[in-house]
Amino acid sequence: MDLFLTYTLVGLVMGAVYAIAASGLVLTYTTSGVFNFAHGAQAMLSAFLYWQLSVGWGLPVPVAFVLVVLVFGPLTGVLLHKTLMHGLRDVAEVTKVVVTVAVLLGMVSLSQWIWNPTEARSVAMLWGNSTSFELLGVRIRYHELLCLVAAAALAIGLRLLFTRSRVGVTMRAVVDDPDLLRLNGYNPDRVAMASWAVGASLAALAGVLVTPVAGGSLEANTLTLLVIDTFAAAMFGRLRSIPRTFVGALFLGLASTYLLGYAPTDWDWIGNVKTALPMIVLFLVLLVLPQDRLRGAQQRTRERTRVPSVRFAAGWAVAFVAIMFVITKIANPLMLGPWTAALAFSIIALSLVPLTGYAGEINLVPLSFGAIAVIVAYHTGVSGTGLDATLAWKGLLIGTVAAALVGGLVALPALRLRGLYLALATMAFGGLVSTLVLSEVTPRDWPIWGENTIFPAAVIAMPHLDAGPLDLDDEATFLMALAVLFAVLGVALVALRNSGYGRRLAAMKDSPAAAAMLGQSLVRLKLSVFMLSAAIAGLGCILMASAVGSVAPDNFLIVASLALVMLTVVGGVSYVSGALFGGFMVGMGFSLINGTFGNLEAGSDMYAGLFGSLSHVFAIAIALTGIGVNRNPSGIVNDICESYRPLRNARPVLYVGVAAGLVLLGLNWVEVIGDWSFAIGIFCVVVLLPVLGRIWMPERVLTESELAEHRSRAAVVPPELRALDGPLDPEERYDLDTYLGLPARALPALDETPSDLEATRV
Amino acid sequence: MSEPSGGAPLLETRGITVRFGGNTAVDDVSLSVAPGCVTGLIGPNGAGKTTLFNTVTGMQRPTSGRVLLDGTDITGRPVAKRAALGIARTFQRLELFLTLSVRDNVRVAGDIVNAGRRFRGGSIDVEAETDRLLELTGLTPIADREVSDIPTGRARVVEVARALMTKPRLLLLDEPASGQTEHETDEFAEMLAGLAATGLGICLVEHDLPLVMKLCSTIHVLDQGRLIASGTPAEVQASPEVVAAYIGGEVLA
Question: Which of UniProt's keywords are assigned here (chain B) (predicted)?
Answer without folding.
Answer: ATP-binding, Nucleotide-binding, Transport
